[in-house]
Amino acid sequence: MGDGGEVMKALGASVVILPGGELYEAMQRGVIDAFEYSTLASNWKMKFNEVAKYVILSPVRAPSDPQVFYVNKEAYNKLPEDLKLIVKNTLDKWATAEHEYLVAESIKALDEFKKAGCEVYKLPKEVEDAVAAAAEKFYKEKSAKEKGIFEEIFNSMQSFGKAYATMK
Fold first, then answer.
1. d(Cα 152, Cα 35) in Å, to the nearest integer?
2. Residue boundaries of the structural domains of the chain
3. Contact between 49 and 113 (Cβ < 8 Å)
4. Which of 28, 35, 153, 154 has a CA positioned 20 to 30 A from the CA of residue 142?
5. What's the CATH fold of domain 2-165?
6. What is the pTM of this model?
7. What pLDDT, in 10s, does the model give residues 142-160?
């Protein structure tokens, strides 16, 4: 269920893992009461409006959906530096364009959810704060156990978050 599932369990949720293709039927049959799945654009295409009354928005779930690329390390390392730069720049450009596309499509999808009769609202601040606090506790504990790169990344993210918050 990943880290997000662990955080939700810490908040008292009963978390199960289902393939995305089974969510619609699980909601329809009442096997699950709620779920999280991908972008609003993807959710709309999956017709989740037919089985879910509410669309709840919150950046604490995922401030962005990552665009991930996997490259054969051995093959990449054999490339000359100029081609490595082309690969990096191409993937960076594609990831940025894909993210912007998904945001634009999700804005359209949100309107479609509303037109379909779904109630759309933002997660209440006190719930967001509770999720954020549980996540911070989880990651602090995890970084203490998983020294090295995980701890380094977590500390870097914490530092960035504090610095970014000063701009509000």
1. 31
2. 2-165
3. yes
4. 35
5. D-Maltodextrin-Binding Protein; domain 2 (3.40.190)
6. 0.79
7. 988 888 888 898 889 889 9
